[in-house]
Amino acid sequence: MRRRESLQTYREHQRSDDLTYKDASANAYSWLRDQAIRNLDCDRSFSSKVLISREDAHGRRIQNKDAVLQLLEPLGFQELVLSELSFQEQVKSFSGAEIIISPHGAGLINTIFAPDNCKVIELFPEWVKPTFFILSNTLGHQYGYIECDQTRRDLIVDIDELNRMLENMDII
Fold first, then answer.
1. Which domains can be identified in the chain, with CATH numbers?
2. What distances in angstroms separate CA 97 from CA 14, 106, 111, one per listed residue?
3. CA dist., res. 123 & res. 109, Å (int)
């Protein structure tokens, strides 16, 4: 009975609006990253500058992706759709990333595999959650975020704001 009550309490806590987030230690993340990279078997190469696309998702897609790419591609950014990559390819793409730009979403958990000095820019709709800020802080990443306009469930990135963020993080 005790176990069921604990699970009930856990589920109620998960549904609550409080901002309690749990995080593992930097050592735990480092161990996981080292193990994944040590066992990596992937010949594909990726750019060190990555824009994560959610074009196959049901929400938080970048509506003005063409304008975003027009700014980022001359800087050497490569667009990735994570659902099209194997786990090994995801690990490899993030392990060599110097800069990651992505809409908020589960794919950002792969920043665990990114180097300590990686720069992460997270794109949010009208709400902001600290999940990947906390992770980036623990991992030693430089973190920034942009609050985007929202159309239905998707994002419209302010190109001027993205350009300012790139400048502020010494990317351009």
1. 26-169 (3.40.50)
2. 32, 17, 9
3. 14
**What tens-digit pLDDT sequence spans the chain (172 residues)?**
443 443 344 334 444 455 566 667 888 999 999 999 998 888 889 999 999 987 776 767 789 999 999 999 999 999 999 999 999 999 999 999 999 999 998 899 999 999 999 999 999 987 788 889 999 999 999 999 999 998 888 999 999 999 999 999 999 8
Tell me the C-alpha distance between 55 and 105, whole Å.
Answer: 12
Q: Give the predicted TM-score (pTM) of the model.
A: 0.84
Q: What are phi and psi of 129, to 5 degrees?
A: -120, 140
Q: Which amino acid is at 53?
A: S
